């Protein structure tokens, strides 16, 4: 490349054979995704997204656009949907009343069921099920709280939590998946 020329990154073309035309209906048929197809790509959601401000790889308009286009594998197996902070700013701004955050939560649920959950989240879920804490307090944290004159952290309701995760199927989703992986 000669001096003064700008390098433009070349993206892989989107091939129609890789698209799932039913994906948008799959999401729109869920209770949280019903307005998905009203999106007219204005970009107001991306413009107000606090995550998009700190990283270029995340734009809610892109997630919604790829979902409508039918890029099922890319959306569900990719990292983007896990970056949303679920702050709902995008939903407040969308002129078409697309439930953007809810669509992303729906996409996460499907991705999780289909084995695409990030390992770090699986570990956090296990920690929550086994100890009642996503991030277990350490002895040094307890000591620091004491030094600052803060109360000891309350005992968590571990038994109730374990009853809920078993009754809702969340336990099987986490440990069933692991058992299946061990067998393969
Ligand atoms: S703000 Fe709403 S209509 Fe505009 S791009 Fe985002 S989802 Fe689509
Ligand atoms: S809910 Fe997610 S996508 Fe929407 S503005 Fe917040 S971080 Fe961005």
Would you give an account of this structure?
The protein has 184 residues and is an all-alpha fold. It has two domains: 16-113, Orthogonal Bundle (Fumarate Reductase Iron-sulfur Protein, Chain B, domain 2); 119-183, no CATH class. The protein has helices at 23-28, 44-48, 50-54, 60-69, 72-77, 89-93, 100-113, 119-131, 139-147, 158-167, 170-183. The termini are far apart. One iron/sulfur cluster binds next to helix 3, helix 6 and helix 7.
Nutshell version of this structure?
The protein is 53% helix and 0% strand.
Radius of gyration: 21 Å
Write down the overall geometry. Answer: globular
Q: Could you please say which CATH topology of the largest domain applies here? A: Fumarate Reductase Iron-sulfur Protein, Chain B, domain 2
The number of distinct helices, counting runs of at least 4 residues, comes to: 11
Kindly state the number of beta strands: 0
Helix-strand makeup class:
mainly alpha
Biggest beta sheet attributes: none
- State the assembly state of the protein chains: single chain
Please estimate the helix content.
40-55%
Give the rounded overall mean pLDDT: 90
| Ligands bound to this protein structure | iron/sulfur cluster
Q: Which spans have pLDDT < 50 for at least 5 consecutive residues?
A: none
What is the architecture of the largest domain at the second tier of CATH?
Orthogonal Bundle
Report, as a whole number of angstroms, the end-to-end distance.
Answer: 48 Å
Compressed to H and E, one letter per element, the order equals HHHHHHHHHHH
> What is the CATH superfamily label of the largest domain?
Alpha-helical ferredoxin
Strand content: under 5%
How many discrete structural domains? 2
CATH class of the largest domain: Mainly Alpha
């Amino acid at each position: 490349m000669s001096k003064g020329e700008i390098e433009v990154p070349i993206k892989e073309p989107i091939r129609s054979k890789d698209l799932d035309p039913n994906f948008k209906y799959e999401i729109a048929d869920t209770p949280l995704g019903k307005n998905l197809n009203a999106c007219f790509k204005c970009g107001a959601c991306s413009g107000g997204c606090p995550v998009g401000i700190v990283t270029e790889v995340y734009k809610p308009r892109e997630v919604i656009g790829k979902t409508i286009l039918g890029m099922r594998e890319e959306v569900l197996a990719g990292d983007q949907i896990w970056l949303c902070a679920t702050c709902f700013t995008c939903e407040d701004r969308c002129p078409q009343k697309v439930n953007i955050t809810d669509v992303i939560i729906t996409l996460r649920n499907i991705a999780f069921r289909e084995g695409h959950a990030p390992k770090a989240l699986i570990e956090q879920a296990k920690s929550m099920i086994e100890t009642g804490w996503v991030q277990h307090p350490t002895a040094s944290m307890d000591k620091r709280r004491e030094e600052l004159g803060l109360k000891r952290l309350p005992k968590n309701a571990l038994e109730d939590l374990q009853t809920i995760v078993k009754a809702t199927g969340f336990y099987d989703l986490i440990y069933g998946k692991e058992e299946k992986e061990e067998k393969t």
